[in-house]
Structure formats: structure tokens, C-alpha cells
Write a structure and sequence with these properties.
179 residues, binds shikimate-3-phosphate, 8 helices, alpha/beta, five-stranded parallel beta sheet, Rossmann fold
Amino acid sequence: MRNVVLIGFMGTGKTTTGTALAKTIGFSFHDLDEAVETESGMTIPQIFAEKGEPYFRACEKQMVKKAAAMDRAVIATGGGTVKDEENVRALRETGIIVALTANVNTILQRTGTKGVRPILDGEDGGNRKKAIEKLLFERRGLYAQADFSVDTSDRSAQEVADAIIETLKTRGEYDVGMA
Ligand code: S3P
């Protein structure tokens, strides 16, 4: 079976869903943000502050190449990974692409902690909500490139993982006899 690649906006649950999904189907779990942090020895906010976003994107691209070469992996991307067409192409070559979605209030709630997502920091309260809405609108076409999408609002990570498995089965993408 192909890799399963989770794309979607910040706060749509790519990491939590990916962890639950990988465990359920017996795949390894690979998180691109975590790989970037390990590779660079810095947290993402540190990278953005000290090296800038282009450095982060270059490192992210290297991690995409490594991840796309994996076998039987669930890959959680960062919200901006799919801005780069080559990233999408590489991930699609070996994986099925699943977009996770969530409504704005859910995203606001899940991304409320400051100092974690530099792209959203600097925007408070209503402004933060507006910044999310604006970015969601700008990026909507990127997430629409997925093979299918699953809404994660008001659902647990396991419920989302199970919904993904159901759709994989319907599409004939799921190996019978897997965990
Ligand atoms: C980003 C999303 C983050 C992380 C970085 C940039 C983005 O990942 O890669 O802060 O551009 O949307 P999450 O979607 O896992 O928060």
C-alpha cells in the first residue's frame, strides 16, 4: 500500500491523526515539522526567528524528499509544505494525499498557544481569527489537490483515522488483512 500523506491547514490535526492512523494500520509515522526540528537542532519558532522562513522551507523540502522515499509510512506535512509544487509531486509519487479540514473556530482554538506557529503569531484575538480566515482562503486551492478530504472538527484523532481508513477501503487503497 502507498504511503498516506496528510496535508491541511495548521490546527487540522495532521500530527494527532497521523499518529493514530499509523498505529491503527501498522505503518511508521513521520512528521515533517519534527524532522526539520531534529535536522536543524532548533524549534520551528527559533528557525523562523533566527534563520527566516526561506531557510525553513529549504529544510522542509529536504525532509519531504526523505519522507517520500519511505515505505508504508504515514506522513504528516506542515501547513505550508504544499505551497511548493515539487513537494506535492514528490509526495504524490509514493503516497495517497489526504487533506484534513476544520472550521475556523476549531482552528483558532487548536492554534491558540502563542510561540508555536510563527505564521500566526503577531495576530491577537479577532485579528488572529481574521488572519486564519485570510490564509485559509489563500491556501484553499492547495489543500483541494488532495485525493480526498476529511473534516476533523468535533472529532477525535481516532475517529478521523477510522474515517480515513473507511475511505481508503472504499477506494480500494487498503490492503485487506492489514491491522
Ligand atoms: C506552517 C505550519 C506549521 C509549520 C510552520 C509553517 C505553515 O505546521 O510547518 O510553522 O506555513 O502553515 P503545522 O501545520 O503542523 O502547524
